[in-house]
Write a structure and sequence with these properties.
The protein has about 150 residues and is an alpha/beta fold. The chain has 6 helices and 5 strands. About 50% of the residues lie in helices and about 15% in strands. Helix 4 links the parallel strand 4 and strand 5. Helix 1 crosses helix 5, helix 2 packs across helix 3 and helix 4 packs parallel to helix 5.
Amino acid sequence: MSIGIACDHGGFHLKEEITAALRDAGYKVTDFGAYSLNKDDDYPDFVVPLAIEVANGSLGRGIAVCGSGVGASIAANKIAGVRAALIHDVFSAHQGVEDDNMNIMCLGGRVIGSFLARDLVHAFLSARFSGEQRHRRRLAAIDALERKNS
């Protein structure tokens, strides 16, 4: 699976750690930046290009990191076809994929540490969408809402 990752200054250090761990584990990682620590950068500049590539299927999944993870989640979810969520616990990391077909996990670089982040990434990337009818029905309703409002 190819993975995309993006961050702003608030998530820069955590993104660097996650990227190295993913590459060490054999994942192909596309880094959308930030490529250096710049306190004046803006998360949409990095997260939106990541979200576009996930939505169009060029990437299997994405990870977006900002200071709290909230801004990254809001920005990613503006792209039709993205199902991004702010994650702080292992259950939500895998359940979001299994039930809701989450394709971008958002993390708070100032909220969680690197050890928890690695556990969350592992749970997120190991999970598979269940495909159960009730989950497909809910996702179809979300897709219809996106089409109606675009």
